[in-house]
Amino acid sequence: MILFISGGARSGKSYFAEQTALSLHNKVKGRERSLLYYIATAKKSDDEMVERIRIHQQDRGDVWKTVEEPFDIERILANCNKEDVILLDCLTIWLSNVMFELNYSLEKLEKVIFNLLSLAREKQFHLMIVSNDVNVGIPTSYDSVFTYMYSLQRIHQRIIEQSDIVVEVQAGIPTYWKGAKWL
Question: How far apart are CA 165 and CA 128, in angstroms?
């Protein structure tokens, strides 16, 4: 299953994703030997980010296998197994990392996303992808920001096409745009 969760900054999307992943993991772990992964894409760029990461890890507890990976998500997913539950948080930060540090083109981005979704289908694990809605508001005059926003929206479209469930979270309230509510 592929689940895409989006929302604005501080909308409650990560909390919703974590609760959904925990619930799904509890359902499948009795049937299969399932692991619960949290793939964190943020980098420890300054003291504030280090503290935010520490608090998030503390809040999640020991049930999660946390993997900090700002670039190579495909390598992590290649090692996941059937019925594992993987929460990728967040696509927006990953995109920033690979676009501005590794100079990924839109073509390369779409290929990587295709590979991630293909891995989820082939290996039959549950992939939950969290991303921000950044296309609301006044259009930007900065080329790099415009390219980033355009690329993010293209990637969102590719993911949504392949997702079983698509949810948008606003003020902690999920709206299901595709697929059935199962929690």
Answer: 9
Question: Can you name the residues that pair with 126 across neighbouring β-strands?
Answer: 85
- 38 contact partners, CB below 8 Å, separation of at least 6: 18, 21, 60, 64, 65, 66, 67, 87, 89
| Residues with a known catalytic role | 56
- Both tokens of residue 47? 């003291």
What token pair was written down for 106?
Answer: 């839109």
pLDDT tens for 101-127 read 999 999 999 999 999 999 999 999 999
- What global pTM score does this model have? 0.91
pLDDT in tens, 133-160: 876 666 677 888 888 999 999 999 999 9
Query: Please, what are the domains in the chain?
Result: 2-178 (3.40.50.300)
Q: How many CB atoms lie within 10 A of CB 151?
A: 18
Question: Would you list which residues are annotated within the binding site for GTP?
Answer: 7-14, 40-42, 68, 89
Q: Based on the number of CB atoms within 10 Å of its own CB, is 173 exposed (0-12), middle (13-18) or buried (19 or more)?
A: exposed
Taking Cα atoms as reference points, which of 97, 101, 89, 28 lies closest to residue 59?
Answer: 89
